[in-house]
């Protein structure tokens, strides 16, 4: 499986992602050709070789002559939906913008449809997001894996004035995903970069692969303590990319209340655990108890183990790293009589095995329509099976 591993040495932004894709072999002219299908003007793209701390990569510079042009999420989404972009790139760009829009809506306390974009809605960011979606499609990547993203400290100026780093929208986008302390007072991960990574990538260690190409996307700043680069490793993964590594955390409890257990599961999942499960067992002194099992990305093992110790009565946690055989997943939306719904596509290699409706999307449709949730599930899955025949 053709796999791209993103190594966020100094974070990720939209222009760094564009530069990386060009450095990996995507022709900038091919990206520009697709961007011309959008009713957006007043910009120019230039790819040039630049070095950061002695390492050379590609920087894609977006020059714009349009300023302070605010756009709503609904307007951007409608523009993309009506465009002649290739379907895969068009839908990926829409999902990335939706992530940013939902984060902005949460931060500012407004409905998604009324969100006004400032920096993210400007021409350069539209170019970054759509260009990244087009570039990934042209590169033919089947799987993207990303390392944990480095978070900054301090403040950054935006349309609303000085805001703390990481930007509030960035943190909303990265909920449930692994982050680390970047030990930097400059913005390393922008909302646009965070949304691209969150939408296209699984987060985890470098997978076993036959390495083919290495590329570098160059950031605008020349940082004093690190090369301001987004590195990409492109290659073929073994076992069709279906095996990765996870950490399993376990502990036994016999004196924790159901209320605490419910809260514990919520905290562990919010902190980035892939899965949390409770199973009954008989413990010493004939006490009924339970086993807590947490499956997580290896970089989060320490954080989740300490969270488990703090939030429960456990005084010890067992941990081990193991392989995980998994099926490839993709996301899509389908139209139903109740509105659009998100579905999950499950693949074995290139074969589509099944399509399943996403709970959150079905629940929203059930609440809006007054229909029973099981009926909504059936409605969505029938629509999905017609659109994606197994």
From TrEMBL:
The keyword Acyltransferase does not apply. It comes from the Bacteria. Pfam families: Ni_insertion. One of its GO terms (molecular function) is nickel cation binding. Belongs to the LarC family. This is Putative nickel insertion protein. Gene3D superfamilies: mk0293 like domain, Transcriptional regulatory protein pf0864 domain like. It comes from Trichloromonas acetexigens. The keyword DNA repair does not apply. Keywords: Lyase, Nickel. InterPro entries: Ni_insertion (IPR002822).
